[in-house]
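ESCALATION

Customer reports they have been waiting on this structure for their group meeting. Please prioritize. Original submission:
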Amino acid sequence: MNTISWNCQGAGADLTKQHLRELHCCFFPSFLFLSEIENGSPLLKDFQASFGYDKVFTVEPEGQSCGLTLFY
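Update from on-call: job pushed to the front of the queue and completed.
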């Protein structure tokens, strides 16, 4: 069982998406935790579908506070 935990300071940048794909392909983590997410659910649902996770738990960003996401 592998886990990746990453403070990505926003997940919308193309370079961030590319790096996440590379990490996922190399390690196939059972759990992927992303902190300081600045984007909401639509982008995260795309990640969930492209990485093949069955479930996702998200704390949405609110105001100046960033969100959290756990894919599993």
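Sent to customer with the following note: The beta strands are 3-7, 31-37, 56-59, 67-71.
Escalation resolved.
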